[in-house]
Predict the 3D structure of the following.
Amino acid sequence: MKTLNGGCLCGSVKYIIPDDLIYAGYCHCSECRRWTGAPFSATGGVKELDFTLIKGKSFLSSFKKGKNSISYFCKNCSSIVYGEVPEHNMVFVMLGTLAESPSLKPQWHIYTDSKLDWYRIYDDLPQYAGSPYAQ
Ligand SMILES: [Zn+2]
Ligand SMILES: [Zn+2]
């Protein structure tokens, strides 16, 4: 299987994953907006075992995001690189940190009830006011 390379802005943190995302999508919730400083987050999920950090462990700092996830960012350049959801043995990567385009593209927009009023969604992907998945 093809692998995808990813990493932070300064290059201190690098990882690889197989090109086998389980999901990919955009989240417009207020937490993700503040977390990223962007209008929405774009993340993709892989199985924990499929995620390999190849460089930069000592550069990582973590933040407990929400109830179930731990977010990892580079201490040097502040890029949010990936996160863990231990309860589900999953890792999510920030799609913007990938150097190559994954085969699976974002499939949905969630928490559009929290979307910034000036941000307009131009694609035809399904939109959910909250999350379609039970938390
Ligand atoms: Zn960095
Ligand atoms: Zn969110």
Remarks:
- Residues 19 and 103 are 6 Å apart (CA to CA).
- The mean pLDDT is 96.
